[in-house]
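Homework-ish question, so no full write-ups if that breaks the rules, but can someone show me the predicted structure for this set?
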Amino acid sequence: MAQSNTQHHQSGATPAGNRPSEGWDEWFDRHSRTFFIAPAVTFILIFAIVPTFYSIVFALSRVKFSPDGLQFRFVWFQNFLKQFVGNEQTHFLGRLEGLSAFAWLFNIIVIAAVLYWLYRSVRNGASWVGMVGRLISAAMAIAISLLLGATLLSGNPWGTLLTTLFYVVVGCALQFVIGTGLAFLCSQPISGKNFFRVIFFIPLMITPLGVGYAFKMILDITKGPFQPFWEFIGLRDWAWSTDAWAARWFVVIGDSWQWIPFIFICMLAALENVPKDHVEAAQVDGASSVQIFRDIIWPQIVPVAATVILIRMIEAFKIVDLPNIMTSGGPGIATESMSLHSFFIWRANDYGMSAAVAYMLLLVTVVVCASFFNYVVLKQLRSSHA
Amino acid sequence: MSFRKVLTAALVAGTALCGTTFAASAGEFDGVTVNILTRPGPVIAGKLAERGKEFEKATGAKIVVSEVPFAEIFQKIQTDWTTGTNSIDVGVFAAGWGVELAGAGLLEDLSPYVDKDTKLNPDDIAPYFREFGQKIGGKTMLLMVDGDFQMVYYRKDILDKNGLTAPKTWDDYLAIAKKIHGQDMNGDGQADYGSCIFKKRNAQSYFAIQTMAAGLIQTQGTAQGFHFDNATMKPIIKNDAWKKAFEMYKETGKYGPPEELNMDIGDTRGLFKAGRCGILIEWGDPGPMSIEKDAGAIKDKLYAVSGLGWKEVLDRKTGKLVPVTKENAPSSVDGINYAPFAAFGGWAGAVNGKADAKKKAASYAFLSYMNQAAQSNIDVTIGWTGYNAYRISQLKDTTPWVAAGFSKEAAENYLGAINGALANPNMASDFKIPGAQSYSGVVLDRELARYLAGEITVDEALANIEAGWEEITEDFGRDNQIKAQGLALGTGK
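A: Not a homework solution, just the prediction itself:
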């Protein structure tokens, strides 16, 4: 005790809450990690987390402008409910009338599959936390399938939710297939591959706004550079921008042109990390190219592939520039994504509704991406480590 | 340099030397900076900056013009002035937006300044813009820099070639578009378009549909309005008049460019300047645009009419259309009811009510300088400024217009069309109440776009608009909206 008192006096005042024999310098050493990350955490809290939570106040309120500042009238979940019932329903969900027989069949199959998946999870002894996650994923899957059945499979127009999912699912799939294909080609010993690597990477460096305007000009059928081509194939009077499906596809094409390089560069890195001796050994054993890719290369790049798709999906959910510039959400609301939906409402000063739509997007993004991460990415990572 | 351009330059220089007048005296505003927020590009903002330099030399006040995308102007100004940021002293925006800002107590009442201003000459401002554009509740809250309403333009040479006369009704518009569609109108050997209307979503489509509908619904003068029953704010939308306007609007697409649904005003302007459109709806800009260098195909060929009318009007009790009579449409002419639509209402400047006194004075003085005939009578003849005529003196004399490059006949036609609209007591006002952008730019625009794209029927579109407008009215408070509508249409205080 006397010794410790001596040490205490030697090292000066003891910081509150420290060990009895510890001085300031040791205390700082012990907490140095906290001090180093504190500025970053504070920065993120102030500029990302606080505004995110503050926007919940907007989402739960009707906001008005007055000389004294913004006035909030608390309306609970009214801004959210408006997306599901009433005038905004067709905008967000689409028209939900007259379910076709095919839609019934589709929904029954999906619901049965989801229920079977849940049953298997229970049988396999999933934890209660895991089951809660699975129930949320299952609810989202069933809701999306019901929506698909009521709109696409029943001949009704879509709302912004399914349009966003179209961009995510179709866009990411297209970009992954083409990006991986190009990466595979550039990983082969072909002449000029460095040149192609640079060329394929360039679109990623262009701002989405620029891509939108470039595609709008390129695809202009009356004045664009392909006007003679449209005329030659007899589509002089056909306008892609007035056809809902054509417009959606052209937005996906523009988006893919920009984002294929991202997939390309990540997959190229993954492919180049595949040990050459594995491939050479397979070649010596007489394996065909398809067999080598399927059994040697693919298992080694699949963790990267799953992660790249996840990152791309998160980004794709936020698509706004291309549909805004190329079609302004039209024809009708055919190409309007949820981000664009939120932006248009914000522009009309309806902050509450805009925040509510943004939160709906956040919810869908989190559930879909978390499901993909848990049931696809993690599975692939575990199998690759096994 | 052509003789006309020399004459224009001489006129401008002469005016600058002899006629330039300031409400303020030299050096009066030394050290004062006036921050103005408006739309980007040379249109509107360009001339503000140019005249700002002249104003600075004369008075010492520094004029700083900041530009933001059009869709964000109102939101930025409202946020700046309500949150106490007050970094903007003057907003130059759609005159119609003033009602919402004035209702929130954000605008400086300019009436006392106007009363002392010996250079402004308010009586020279066309009555609609003076009483409905600049005034709110009887007080002058804004000063115009531009006068906007939509007109119809047609290619006189093409109509003459086809033995057609200038249209008077919207039925004539459709008949003309149908007849001339597919003809080569600019000599390039390609088939051109009967009608060109900007129909892109989130652009200007919702203005054009109102231009078509107004004459079917409004018959008793500007104060009647054509969107709501002013006493209850119940929408007047689910009826045969709007249905007819929607259907005709869609039908014009049959005689338009294939991409018309994705065309905004920039696209249609490109087409008609290239001589590819037979008839079109536009603001006042195509007049000065037709004499620009890149508009050789339409120079002295693009004629205007002040607005088209209808031989039927809405019976508001039954929701049905009935033939026009002098009883149900007192200002009708030859059995046709006209209601030129003041789409957007023109660009006007308003002063931040919370700016300090010196800034307010300098801000008013600059807006007055822009508005005075000595400046504005020249500015409105220049296409790139985006300024259209709003003063009577701008419309009396064709000399500045001929000097700018118009032929005498084209200038007379253009000014005659504007005069015809401004003299009409049944001119229709745009939305000016709180939530104006939501009523028109969101709900009306979206449902119209969905109808044009074939997603919904016209009855569904009108039902959706009614429900959407009712939601907005309830949201802002029905009583508040009734009061605001009275202020907007000049019937309330």
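Now go work out the reasoning yourself. Hint: Residues 1-9, 11-23 of chain B have pLDDT under 50 and may be disordered.
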